[in-house]
Amino acid sequence: MLESYGHDVTRFTRMNDSMSGAGALANARKTIWNHGIADEIRDVVNSKQIDVVHFHNTFPAMSPAAIKSAHDAGAATVLTLHNSRILCPKAVCFRDGQPCTACVTKSFATPAIRHACFHENRLASGVVAVKNWLHRSRKTYQRSLNLAIAPTEFVKKRYEDSGHPMPPIVVKPHFVESDLPLGEGDGGYALFVGRLSEEKGLKVLLDAWDRLTQPIPLKIIGDGPLQHLLDVPQENVEYLGRLDQDAVYRTMADAAILILPSHCAESFGRVVVEAFACGTPVVCANQGGQAELVHPGVGALFESGNASELASVVDRFVENAEETIAMRDAARSEFVSKYTAEINHAQLLDIYHQALILRGRTDLSRLTDPDLRVDPKHARTPSHSGSSTRDSQHANLPLNQSSTFANDNAPESEQSHDTESMRGHDELGRRASSGSPLG
């Protein structure tokens, strides 16, 4: 996104498979503090005179050493809080089919070790717990970051209430592109798009569909460990499997409503914004960051985990078809007013501006002077598909702001339907398969 607006972006990406083949002890050490990555980050910041380093994920291959190194090299530093990994070794605050915040306020995540929360492995969970404890004790994030970005007020409050020493936290939602198909809901069906897993509420959804008094077809897109529940035919339920993104959006545009029954407290809820972009109202569980996005006029909330209440809400949408149709314009307006790339770009520049001031930088001309920018039509179109290489990627555009984006391509599984992709957030890069600190 930044490149398309003419900014000079240097991408610094390390795939987690770069840790494969190393011994367990070596990987554990790198997860806690990776000296090699710290040296690389310092060299990039110095050689390219980087102004802002925006981190999206440093776990496990980079480690928080990357953040401290960028800060020590003189750059302003920003971190997007995509999940709760700093507070919860599992990252999603969900265990045994229920929300869990047992470790969020603890200095040391003993419950995570006891329950083997990370990769169902106590030793690996212990490594992550030690990492979190060490950097909490050293105040690494508070001392080495100028700002942190939360995608919702929910995430901001969770971190602020945790007691973990953090920098100032600002709220900036993610965005999606504006070219999604705008539909009329002509398909007349409800739609679920997401991972077929316990935390995404599939069981609650299927239970609710058995309770409807005003039947409406349900289409389900996705795959996951609970896919077997869809092997048994259920009236008015059609399983479409995993579809390519264009097909997902077409199906979304034709849906009367989108259902988001997740009873894991999501950090954001990108699928909600995608639905709004298509003009589709959303019925959403009333917890987590996703619940902040849905309000009367563009959708409705129901009590998380309550199949009866979900069925009642869906029945009301079916009974009041004209009101549901009228919501489509409001849903699209909600997207246009809050979640476009143009709005996100302005918000992000303001955050970088704040970070530079907090860093003690007074000359902001490289960030703010439009005369120093490359015309966007001559800028390289950014790729959101990530890279399969472990080398740095550089977008060498000669314009006003030099910034670097640091990503470990690891999944942080609070997001949803396209196997943890980060398309259209302010980040560049794609989350790949999960890496373990023990190899």
UniProtKB/TrEMBL annotation:
Which residue stretches belong to region Disordered? 367-439
Name the SUPFAM superfamilies on file: UDP-Glycosyltransferase/glycogen phosphorylase
Residue ranges with Polar residues bias: 382-413
One Gene Ontology term of the molecular function aspect: glycosyltransferase activity
Could you tell me where the Basic and acidic residues compositional bias lies?
A: 367-378, 414-430
- Tell me the domain of life: Bacteria
Query: Which UniProt keywords are listed?
Result: Transferase
Q: Give the EC number(s) under which this enzyme is classified.
A: 2.-.-.-
- Give the Pfam families listed for this entry: Glycos_transf_1
Q: Domain Glycosyl transferase family, which positions?
A: 188-332
PANTHER family to which the protein is assigned, alphabetical: SULFOQUINOVOSYL TRANSFERASE SQD2, TRANSFERASE
Protein name in the entry:
Transferase
Q: Which organism is it from?
A: Rhodopirellula baltica (strain DSM 10527 / NCIMB 13988 / SH1)
